[in-house]
Each structure stands twice: as C-alpha cells, then as structure tokens.
C-alpha cells in the first residue's frame, strides 16, 4: 500500500507511538495516508481507538514478525 508519510515508532512504548502518529498526521492533507511501524503490541488497540476518536480511517493493519504496520487515511 502506498503511503504519503512513514512514521517509525519501533522500540517506543506507549504513549510515544500515538504522539509520533499525531505529529505525522498533522503534516498531512485530508485524504493522504500515514504508515506507522510499531513494536509495542498495545498499539494495536491504541492506534485503532485514536484513529476512530480523531475521525481518521484505519485502512489496514498487518503484523510482520515483531513489527505492526498500520495505514491510516487522514479525515
């Protein structure tokens, strides 16, 4: 999947993946896609809840080894 911006939050614990995601999202235009890579398993629920509460669209999430990859479309 093509993303407009990649945020690497691997090795960071909560709440840093959300903080990095929000900072990345703030730089995008509506409709653009942010890709986030995290290793904190708690981010699976945290990022989904954050995207929903902010009105963004969680497009996809895949797990590749220890890395969770998310794609979120900005509202």
TrEMBL record:
It comes from the Bacteria. Coiled coil: none annotated. Residues 7-31 form the UPF0033 domain. InterPro entries: TusA-like, TusA-like_sf. Belongs to the sulfur carrier protein TusA family. PANTHER family: SULFUR CARRIER PROTEIN YEDF-RELATED. This is UPF0033 domain-containing protein. It comes from Anoxybacillus kestanbolensis. The lineage of its organism: Bacteria, Bacillati, Bacillota, Bacilli, Bacillales.
């Amino acid at each position: 999947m093509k993303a407009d911006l990649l945020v690497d939050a691997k090795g960071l614990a909560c709440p840093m993946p959300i903080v990095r995601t929000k900072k990345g999202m703030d730089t995008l235009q509506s409709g653009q896609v942010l890709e986030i890579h995290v290793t904190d398993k708690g981010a699976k629920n945290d990022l989904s809840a954050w995207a929903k509460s902010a009105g963004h669209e969680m497009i996809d999430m895949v797990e590749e080894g220890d890395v969770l990859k998310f794609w979120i479309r900005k509202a």
